[in-house]
Each structure stands twice: as structure tokens, then as C-alpha cells.
Amino acid sequence: MEPQAQLGEFEPTTAGAVVGLVLVFASIALFPLGRALAQRLVPDRNVFFARWGFFHVGLAIFTYFALTILGGAALEAVGVERSDGLVPVLFGAGLQVATVALCLAFARRLDPDGIASLGLRSGSNVRSLGVGVLAYGLGLPSIVGAMLLSAWSWKALGVDAPPQDMLKLVLELQGAECWIFALLAVALIPLCEELFFRGFLQPLLVQNLGDRLGVLATALLFAAMHGNLVAFLPIFVLALLLGMVMLRTQRIAAAWLVHALHNGITISLVLGSDWARRMLEG
User: Fold this and answer.
1) Cβ–Cβ < 8 Å for 270, 167
2) For residue 142, what are the CA distances in angstroms to 18, 62, 130, 219?
């Protein structure tokens, strides 16, 4: 992968916002069809009861932030800048792996099914992956539409929302570093995020708040975790899609496939299309 030129400014327009609104409504109109097809692929939806509690979720989050502070101090002590090249991506991936390892340990200790209770189950994975591909295909217009609406809305409010750091980074990396970044962003990081949010957190919220509110709350937390104003709405829409896929299939593989597809397509567009890169960076 070769380094990319500096991007021009993307200017959100009212026409773009109207197109975005049409795309969102198109996905909503397709939702009954998608649900019916998903039910045919995976007719039985097993209700899962999380054996862990909010204390364990809180402990996992505390561990993440504690490791962030300690790891940052360690990097500073050895003279490594956290903003240099691949360092922030590798550092973030390491934090996620450590946090997910703790969640796996909780599941193994507290649930008779062990780590399978997080959605790491065998059987029906092909049909579940089919649900994921179907959901992403029908939901992609709403994600793009949300992106256009979000960019226009923040401009209308006069808020200068910065682009996503990871999208800027992929334009700065060269050669092997760019390939390593792509591998982490498409494979490892989505897997860790799905295991924590859809495998560990969502079942607990669903059993306390119900299906809809549980998926909604998980999606809100997932989008907020990314910490970007322009990206919040499209990430929230993606997270709703991921939550529904997980709710239907109870398979992390299905949610991971959707997440990996989305990240892979986004990175490919950022690297290969000047218009898409300008739009995605807002």
C-alpha cells in the first residue's frame, strides 16, 4: 500500500443530507424483508442468560482504563510516543485483547458453557454468517445515509467536528505498516470489540432492559466509545445492526463478519477513492 496524498476538504450539502435521509428510509423500508429472511435462515432464537453481572462489566472497564494509564506511563518511560505510526493502533489492540481476556475468564468461571456463552459456539455458523451478510447488505444504505446526515447536521450547528483519527492514520502509513494496520482494523480489533460489546455487555443489558432497549443501550455505548462527533451517528447505526445480528444468531462470528466487512470496505474506500476519503473524514 502506498501513502496517499493530502485530502481536500469535504463540504456537506443540503442535497447530500436529503440523499442521506432517503437512504435511511430505504433501509427502514427493507427492514421487514430482512427480518423475514433472517428468521428463515435462523428460525430459532435462543434466549441467553448472562451469568455475570454489572460488577464484572465494571471491573473489565476499570481494567481497560488502568492498563491505559499504566501502559502509557511505561511507553513514556522508554521514550516511545503513543502518537507515532502504528503505536496507537498496537497499543489500543493490546488493551482490547487484555480486557477481552478478562471477559473470557469471567465467562469460563461463571457460566457452565464457558467461553461459548460469549457467542463462541459451534454449529449453525454458516447460516448465521448468512444473516450477517444479509443484514449488512440491507443496512449499508442507512449507514451511508447516517454519515451524510451527520456531516450536514454538525456543519449546520456550526460545530467543527474533527475526522476520525484512524482514518487519518491509514493515509499516513506506508508499506508494511499500512498492511499491519489493515489486518488489525479488519480482523483483531473488530473481534475484540464484538466479544466485549455484543458477547459480554449486550446479553446483560438485554436481560435487564429487554431486547430493544438492550440493543439500543449497547449501540449507544459502542458509538460513544469511539469519541467522534461526525462518526457517532453512522457508528450507532452500525452498532444497532450488529446488535440485531447477535440477538438473532447468538454467534460472535456473524457480528464479527459484519464489523470486519464494514471496516474493510471503509479502509478500501479511504485508500482507493478520493471522494470517499473526503466524505468519510468529514
Assistant:
1) yes
2) 13, 34, 19, 15
Residue of 193, 192, 198 lying closest to 248 (CA atoms) = 198
The CA distance from 233 to 154, in Å, is 11
**Amino acid present at 209:** L
Q: Rg of the chain's alpha carbons, rounded to an integer?
A: 19
Taking the alpha carbons of 9, 26, 221, 244 in that order, is the dihedral positive or negative? negative
The model's pLDDT over 170-183, given as tens digits with 9 standing for 90+, comes to 777 778 888 899 89
Distance CA 254, CA 182 (A): 20
Q: How do residues 84-127 score in pLDDT, each as one tens digit?
A: 788 889 999 999 999 999 999 999 999 999 999 999 987 768 99
CB of 44 closer than 8 Å to CB of 127: no
Q: Which residue has the higher pLDDT, 243 or 278?
A: 243
| CA–CA gap between residue 146 and residue 39 (Å, rounded) | 26
